[in-house]
Amino acid sequence: MPLIQAIILAVVQGLTEFLPVSSTAHLILFPWLLHWADPGEAFDVALHAGTLLAVMLYFFKDWWTLLVCGLGGKYPASAPTEEVAQHKKLFWYMVAGTIPGGILGKLFDKPIEEHLRTPMIIGVSMILVALVIWWADSKKDLTRKLEQSNFGDAIGIGTAQAVALWPGVSRSGITISAGLFRKFTREAATRFSFLLSAPLIAGAVAAKLPALIKLHKAGSLDLPLSTLAISILVSGVTGYLVIAFFLRYLQTRTLKVFVVYRVVFGIIILVWSFLQAGVR
Questions:
Q1: Which of 42, 6, 23 shows the shortest CA–CA distance to 265?
Q2: Closest to 225 in 3D by CA, of 212, 235, 237, 236
Q3: Residue 219 — left, alpha, or beta (φ > 0 → left; ψ -120 to 50 → alpha)?
Q4: Per-residue pLDDT averaged across 187-197, rounded?
Q5: What DSSP state is assigned to residue 169?
Q6: How crowded is the C-beta side of 186, counted as CA atoms within 13 Å?
Q7: What is the mean predicted confidence (pLDDT) over 213-225?
Q8: What is the per-residue pLDDT across 134-165, written as a single tens digit (0 to 9) for each?
């Protein structure tokens, strides 16, 4: 793969991983539309490592606080007892919320990868999930803060995250929608979504990393390590900027622009698919 293609796809990953538009859909469709060769699993690992780096760096203080408090410590040292207790609960809610996606990912990741990553399925998913996001975004009384989360929120949003294995759904889109259905504010639902994404992305990268290392040692890695490193960097920087932008954006705005984008993009994909099928 030429370096310029790698950089373009890394930017696409960074832009779409955290916006509710489906990074999987865009990474499948960009090479398909532009007639590029499949970049392969090694490149997919690199891109997800980049966005994992972005979400871990952006929420480093949050995760450090949750980890220390969740494991029985106290951070910061001056934090009131009630605040420490809330951080401890939130940490274990994140653990619980990761379980559905982890189980379904282990069971169905490979069948989905082999049979469902088609433009037609992605186009339909883009439109249907846009309607779900629109429904959730139109809810009233979105007043709950992240500190008010409970175990039911963790299971509900975590189960929604598992649904995002289906191509075209969008992990952030479906989990933010689940948060809105639970009456979180848009910003709180997004923070919950992004915090919850870190363990699942880390698990996906860790699961594929041994095969990547094996390929490298065998000398059969299709992409140079320099291209993978640049892709990680570009994906990470782009993802970090998108997280910062999106959280500020949702303080005063709704998700409607992303609903419109998904519907229009989904229609374009379906029309293009029908035209391609007609040519054959």
A1: 23
A2: 212
A3: left
A4: 94
A5: S
A6: 21
A7: 70
A8: 999 999 999 999 999 999 999 999 999 989 88
- Distance in angstroms (rounded) separating the CA atoms of residues 161 and 173: 9
What is residue 113's predicted lDDT score, i.e. its pLDDT?
73
Query: What 3-state class would DSSP assign to 184?
Result: strand
* 246/251 Cα distance (integer angstroms): 9
The tokens of 181 are what?
């259905």
- Here the tokens at position 84 are 């420490």
What is the tens place of the pLDDT at every residue in 21-63? 998 889 888 888 888 887 776 778 888 899 999 999 999 999 9
pLDDT surpassing 70 at residue 123: yes
Spell out the residues 6+ positions from residue 262 whose beta carbon is closer than 8 angstroms to its own: 20, 21, 22, 126, 127, 129, 130, 133, 170, 173
- Of how many residues is the chain composed? 280
HSE toward the beta carbon, residue 155, CA cutoff 13 A:
3
Residue 254 Rama label (left phi>0; alpha psi -120 to 50; beta): beta
Q: Report DSSP letters for 56-116, one per residue.
A: HHHTHHHHHHHHHHHTT--SSTT--HHHHHHHHHHHHHHHHHHHHHHHHHHHHHHHHHHHT
pTM for the whole structure: 0.91
Six-digit token string for 85: 């207790």
